[in-house]
Design brief:
CATH class: Alpha Beta
CATH superfamily: YggU-like
CATH topology: Conserved Hypothetical Protein Mth637, Chain: A
Shape: globular
Strand order of the largest sheet: 2-3-1-5-4
Strand content: 25-35%
Largest sheet: 5 strands, mixed
Helix content: 10-25%
Number of strands: 5
CATH architecture: 2-Layer Sandwich
Structural class: alpha+beta
Number of domains: 1
Order of helices and strands: EEEHEEH
């Protein structure tokens, strides 16, 4: 079974949901959701599912539930496929 683990740094309570780029080996993601009662984790899963074109149930926050630094397990996608899909949503470098 194909799966990928993504390291993510989340900035909650942002003006919009967006993929900002990389901070070392972590994807930087801004989310509009607040960091309370799992709202940011839920928003993260839905946002990544939309970018990766898979069901939200195929993603799970496996580490860092109460931290800005998280690990997300992506089932159904090989790592190279997941990163290629995410690359299409990264802002262009100037």
């Amino acid at each position: 079974m194909a799966e990928t683990r993504l390291k993510v740094m989340v900035t909650p309570r942002s003006s919009k949901n967006s993929l900002l780029g990389y901070n070392g080996d972590e994807l930087k993601i801004s989310l509009t959701a607040p960091p309370v009662e799992g709202a940011a984790n839920e928003a993260l899963v839905k946002f990544l599912a939309r970018l990766l074109k898979i069901r939200p149930s195929s993603l799970k926050v496996t580490a860092g539930q109460a931290s800005r630094h998280k690990t997300v397990l992506v089932e159904e996608l090989e790592q190279d496929v997941a990163y290629e899909l995410l690359k299409a949503h990264l802002p262009e470098k100037k």
